[in-house]
């Protein structure tokens, strides 16, 4: 990344006021909300349509067994409004069953400028400190009680020559003792971007200079668990994530799911390290033992080619 001079500061601040990412505030569920549902009783897929009509334009094909979110009853009672991979449309009720176990915890996000002191807060223990010439990114994770609900809070600030460019605050209802909010630097070495992982929402890429959302992979349609282990290929921008109890996934620089690995072994869990090799990735798991496992996976297909015991 080329150095950004102070002369351009005013230009960037103007751009940020125009390009700032939209806030994500949870909407009241209200009457008619029925939550997450699973696609059932079809041969291969059901159609997500633009209007509650069997002849309406098709927005997407939702495969058998897939989960759709934010479902609401419709007046016609034949259709249900739902969300799938960023699209909101209508699916015939007869092909959906309730799936409350997939109802995500409530999360929110706002984008607002913050000083370094506001980012650090009282704890002041960064989970991310990154610098590239005169651009810096700092993030802190806290636990708070909001409206009587234990909540994870993550504050991220981006600075140019020490001056605030943008700030991001992500909150998520706390789920057990796992940390489900994470941030790391994605993109490539020449074009770094800020990644935000929200275990109840998904993986979002924020533009480094504006804080604007570039894309989001919904966690419901790509299980990523708590993203316990993360690695980024600085040449291609591909992101590899492995959760404590979810299979490894690979996501491309432009937000496409490249693969989701199949690890059919109940003894393999709790990843703690991902290493990127020439044509493979290696993921190490503690699996609750003094000696854990190392999985070797092809980086372009997600095929498992080796599993071995390793000492920690």
Q: Summarize this, please?
A:
The chain is mainly beta. 5% of the residues lie in helices and 50% in strands.
Characterize the structure shown:
The protein is mainly β. It is built from 2 helices and 24 strands. The protein has helices spanning 9-19, 116-120; strands at residues 33-39, 45-49, 58-63, 67-73, 79-84, 87-92, 96-98, 107-111, 126-132, 135-146, 149-160, 163-173, 181-187, 192-198, 202-206, 213-218, 229-232, 239-242, 249-251, 257-260, 271-276, 280-285, 291-298, 304-311. It has a 5-stranded antiparallel sheet with strand order 6-5-4-1-7, with no helix packed on it. Strands 8-12-11-10-9 form a 5-stranded antiparallel sheet. Strands 13-14-15-16 form a 4-stranded antiparallel sheet, with no helix packed on it. A hairpin with a 5-residue loop joins strand 23 and strand 24 (304-311). The radius of gyration is 21 Å and the shape is globular. It starts with 8 loop residues before the first helix and ends with a strand. Mean pLDDT is 86; it is low at 2-21.
């Amino acid at each position: 990344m080329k150095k950004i001079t102070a002369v351009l500061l005013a230009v960037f601040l103007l751009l940020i006021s125009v390009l700032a990412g939209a806030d994500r505030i949870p909407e009241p569920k209200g009457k008619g909300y029925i939550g997450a549902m699973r696609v059932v009783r079809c041969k291969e897929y059901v159609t997500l349509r633009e209007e509650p009509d069997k002849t309406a334009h098709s927005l997407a094909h939702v495969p058998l067994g897939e989960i759709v979110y934010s479902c609401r009853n419709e007046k016609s009672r034949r259709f249900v409004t739902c969300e799938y991979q960023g699209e909101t449309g209508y699916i015939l009720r007869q092909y959906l069953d309730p799936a409350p176990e997939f109802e995500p915890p409530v999360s929110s996000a706002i984008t607002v400028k913050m000083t370094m002191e506001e980012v650090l807060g009282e704890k002041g223990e960064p989970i991310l400190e990154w610098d590239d010439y005169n651009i810096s990114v700092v993030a802190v994770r806290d636990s708070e009680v909001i409206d009587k609900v234990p909540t994870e809070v993550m504050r991220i600030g981006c600075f140019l020559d020490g001056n605030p460019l943008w700030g991001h605050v992500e909150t998520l209802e706390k789920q057990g003792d796992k940390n489900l909010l994470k941030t790391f630097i994605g993109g490539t070495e020449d074009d770094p971007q800020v990644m935000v992982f929200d275990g109840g929402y998904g993986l979002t890429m924020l533009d480094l200079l504006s804080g604007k959302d570039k894309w989001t992979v919904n966690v419901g349609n790509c299980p990523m668990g708590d993203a316990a282990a993360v690695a980024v290929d600085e040449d291609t921008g591909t992101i590899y994530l492995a959760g404590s109890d979810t299979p490894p996934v690979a996501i491309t620089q432009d937000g496409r799911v490249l693969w989701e690995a199949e690890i059919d072994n109940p003894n393999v869990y709790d990843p703690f390290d991902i290493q990127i090799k020439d044509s493979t990735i290696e993921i190490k798991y503690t699996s609750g033992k003094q000696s854990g496992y190392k999985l070797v996976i092809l980086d372009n297909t997600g095929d498992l080619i080796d599993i071995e015991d390793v000492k920690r």
